[in-house]
Structures are given as C-alpha cells and as structure tokens.
Design goal:
With 494 residues, the chain is an alpha/beta fold. It has a single domain, classed as Alpha-Beta Complex (Amidase signature (AS) enzymes), CATH 3.90.1300. Helix content is 40%, strand content 13%. The protein contains 18 helices and 13 strands. Strand 12 and strand 13 form a beta hairpin. Helix 2 packs antiparallel against helix 3, helix 5 runs parallel beside helix 6 and helix 11 packs across helix 14. The longest helix is centred in the C-terminal third of the chain and has 22 residues. The C terminus is likely disordered.
Length: 494
C-alpha cells in the first residue's frame, strides 16, 4: 500500500524494519503537500529543509542503534495546529495583533512527539481566536475542504484535518475546546480523538487560562486510522510539572475491549440542531456495524443534550480567568463597538465570527444567576450520563448535523456544534470516525463518547465502525461545485 495511504504505526514499522527510509517517507509527504496545499491552504508555514535534515539523522540512528533503543515513531511525519507551539514557527493563533509571534519552545505535546521520533513538516491553519466552526483568519485566509473547495473543512483544527484528508501527513496535532478536533474530522472524513479532560498538558498551547478551562481544552490527534489514536495519546499524556490541569492517568488498551459486551446508547438528534437525513443515516450505519459485532443498541434520551450550548458556554466562562475580549485584544486596547465599526469599514483585523462569539460569551458572563444554574445542570448531566453508560457503555451521536457546509454557511447555523461542545465541559473522551458518504459523495461521520478515563472504549468502538464501514479515504482536492454552493447559500439546504 502507498505510503500516503497507511497509518502512523504502519509507517513507523516500515521505517524501523528498513523497508523504507525516513527520508523517503518525509519526501513523499512533502511532495504530496506541495501538490495539494495550493488548492486547500491547509498548511500555512512549513519547515521542509529542517524536516529532511531530521529524517537523515533518523536514518543514521536506525543504521547504528539496536531496534529496541529507537524511538517508537522514528521518522514519522506530522503537522501541528498553529495554536500549538513548535520552536521557531508561527504561533499567532490567527490573530492579526500577534502577526509576528513565533514560538520560542515546543509545546509539551510537541516535545513528546518529537522525542518519540516524529518529524514536524509544518503548521496547520486556524480561525482567529479559535472558537469558530470554520477555518479563516486575517493573516492566512481561508482553508478549503479537499472534498470540495467551495466547502469548509470545519474548525478550529481545519488545517490539520484538511491536510490529513488529502494525504499530506499521516496525522496532525489538533486542539479542542468545543469540537475543534471533531468538527474538522467530520467535515474532512478523517478520524480524531478528544481525550478525557486533563490527560495531555496544555503547556505551550494558545488556550484560555484557568485550571478548569485547562481541563475543558485538550490537545489530541487527527489521523488516517483509528489504530493510531491511542499510541499518539499515550505518548503525549501525563503531567509535565507546568500545566496545573493535567492528571496522572493510566490509559486503557482498546484491544481489551470486547465489542460484544458494549452497550451503545444512540441519539441521532438532540432537540436543538436540525440533522440532515444523510447524517442520521450515517449514525444508524455505525450502530448497525457495532450491532453486527455483538454490541447492544439502545436509544439515548437526555434533556441535557438540548441545553448543550448553554451548559458549555456557562461552564467555559466559569472556568476561564480571562474574557474572550481579552483573548482577542492580545494585551492591546480593545472595544467591541470600535472593532465592529472597523469591520463595517473593511478595516478590521478580527473576523466577524470571532467578534460575535466574543460578545455572546461576555454577555453570558454578566448573567451570574443564569450561569450558576447552567453550571449546576452541567454537573448533573455529567453524573447522569456516566450512570447511563455504566462500565460498558458509550454514546453514539452525530459529530456535526450536516456534511461539510459551504464557506460562511455556518453563520446561519449557530447551534451546529452542540453535539460536540457539551463533552468538553463534561470532560468526556470522544472519538470521531467516518460513517460513509452523503448523496453528494461527501463524508459522513459519527462521534463515540465515553465516561471520563474510558478513552480506550470509545477508540475500540470507533475501530469497529471503521472496520465495518471502511474509514478514511484519501482524496485529491476537488474544485468547488458552484451550483451546489449557490443553492446552499440561498436556501441553506444540505
């Protein structure tokens, strides 16, 4: 199988056995990035020369050291979300006010991946400020979905999902505070995993401050194959002595999970976001794939799913030490009226979604009575859903209510992220896996959710869905289909 089609662990195995050299692997992926990136604008900064030098050094180690002394993922290329620090690379978070900011050190997660032998090829694009479902910022512009360039790859780790989807890297490092790993994975047809809150340090990551918020925001992988998710999480997991929100946690082994013992609680809607028939069909395909392997399928009904957006926003505000305005301001003078006026005059340096989200977040922060009630509802939801799942259960839901929308359409779908947001503030692990295709040939996706610490169970369930339905498929970037794009922009159909 082509190097651009196999997963992380398979590539590492081939390099370690000297079936292929690290230089060959890196060169193959650089060539692919150079071929596809002009159409999708997924990777906005590269370090190809340094990566080739590191690949040469990796091959020298392989030729001189015993196999047991080599790092597990020696020579495996990857990309990193621009929010996550890579020494000497841009670290702006897409904010114009940080246009020239460069990371002075590797984030802990990156340092651990590099210690395991991974080679960073470049940085993936992001939306400014990070809390939006598309990938655009005033510095780097739009990222396109490789399945159709008129459509979004999702956000905020859209650059990572787009470049993985197109075969440019076997995995990308994303970050998720309200679906930012899972939404792009769904839109681009990749796999992705948001770990249990507090599993991986946020040191060196552009993220909201506050110990609680640090548990709601988590780094995680976007990849080709489900089998690669847990090895990557285990490499990055554990306290680093610097991030106060990280726990010492024993991560389970997906291979120990018996699918025939699994109870799958299915919800194809949440009473809030309209879900397309294609996405619902994908949910039930995934449920059938699990049932055929012996899992029990049960309906999930919870009123907390309907209030997901409000719970997420309230708990996020409660756990954050700074307002979203302070995030956008980057230490400079800032006011919403002034920024809105600049935007209307086309002189703004902050995108309209970032401004709107900031105003909504800060408004909710000024309603402490309502916020307290919603925080309590979130704690109740956590206890009730963990009780429903028990020792052998997972939740199965849509990841996103529609397949990849056209650019800007999500401004008309403000609650589209409600299937994913709740599980950040509940600190539940969630794994995304493709579930087939819609009537246009765009990928559909599902989300498997578990109790805190049950990452191995959601990953095992996702692997069973992948086995039954086929999983990720490499795509050559396709031009936008104008008729569909115009129809969606006019009528909002999907």
């Amino acid at each position: 199988m082509d190097l651009l089609d196999v997963g992380v662990c398979e590539i590492a195995k081939r390099i370690r056995s000297r079936e292929v050299s690290a230089v060959e692997v890196v060169d193959a992926h650089i060539a692919r990035i150079e071929a596809v990136n002009p159409a999708i604008n997924a990777m906005i900064a590269t370090r190809f020369d340094a990566a080739r030098t590191e690949a040469v050094a990796a091959d020298q180690r392989i030729g001189s050291e015993a196999p047991d002394d080599l790092p597990d993922l020696i020579g495996v290329p990857c990309s990193v979300k621009e929010f996550v620090g890579v020494q000497g690379m841009p670290h702006t978070a897409g904010l114009s006010r940080q246009r020239n900011k460069v990371a002075t050190e590797d984030a802990t997660a990156v340092a651990r991946l590099r210690a395991a032998g991974c080679i960073v090829l470049g940085m993936g694009n992001v939306p400014d400020g990070g809390i939006w479902m598309e990938t655009y910022n005033p510095i780097y512009g739009w990222t396109n979905n490789p399945w159709d360039s008129a459509r979004t790859p999702g956000g905020s780790s859209g650059g990572e999902a787009a470049i993985v989807s197109a075969g440019g890297v076997p995995f990308g490092l994303g970050a998720d505070i309200g679906g930012s790993i899972r939404i792009p994975s769904a839109c681009c047809g990749t796999v992705g995993h948001k770990p249990t809150g507090g599993t991986i340090p946020n040191t060196g990551v552009h993220a909201p401050s506050g110990a609680l918020c640090g548990r709601y925001h988590t780094v995680g992988p976007i990849a080709r194959r489900v089998a690669d998710l847990m090895p990557l999480v285990k490499i990055m997991a554990g306290p680093d002595g610097r991030c106060p929100s990280t726990d010492a946690r024993l991560l389970g082994d997906p291979s120990t999970v018996r699918i025939e013992d699994l109870v799958v609680h299915v919800a194809d809607g949440n009473g809030r976001a309209w879900v397309s028939s294609d996405v619902k069909a994908g949910v039930w395909r995934a449920a059938k794939a699990l049932e055929e392997r012996g899992a029990q399928i049960r309906p999930l009904r919870s009123p907390h799913l309907t209030a997901a957006f409000e719970i997420w926003a309230a708990m996020l505000a409660d756990g954050n030490d700074e307002s979203y305005a302070e995030v956008l301001a980057c230490g400079q003078p800032f006011s919403y009226p002034a920024e809105l006026a600049k935007m209307l005059m086309r002189r703004g340096d902050i995108s309209s979604p970032a401004l709107v989200i900031g105003m909504l977040a800060d408004l909710l922060d000024k309603l402490p009575g309502q916020q307290d009630a919603l925080v309590q509802q979130g704690l109740t939801a956590r206890a009730e859903l963990e009780q429903i799942m028990g020792d052998d259960g997972v939740l199965l839901t849509p990841t996103f209510p529609v397949t990849a929308p056209v650019h800007r359409e999500l401004l008309l779908r403000p609650f589209a992220a409600t299937f994913v947001q709740l599980f950040n503030v509940l600190e539940f692990p969630a794994t995304v896996v493709p579930s087939g295709f819609d009537h246009r040939g765009l990928p559909t996706s599902v989300q498997l959710v578990g109790r805190r610490g049950d990452d191995h169970r959601t990953i095992a369930a996702a692997a069973a869905v992948e086995d039954g339905l086929g999983g990720w498929t490499r795509i050559d970037p396709r031009p936008g289909r104008l008729r569909d794009a115009i129809k969606q922009r006019l009528w909002g159909t999907s």
